[in-house]
């Protein structure tokens, strides 16, 4: 009975960890995409300014 309880807690913990990790990854990917988008926009507007 005690073992089953520990197992449940362990599975819950792993589930939480996975959710947290997913959120963390999504956050990083989102930030990177925003950064790339910003760089791309700057690059394109710079190209427009220089006429190249």
Automatic annotation (TrEMBL):
Keywords from the UniProt entry: Signal
Keyword Signal assigned: yes
The protein's name in its UniProt record: Uncharacterized protein
Organism encoding this protein: Pichia californica
Signal sequence annotation: 1-19
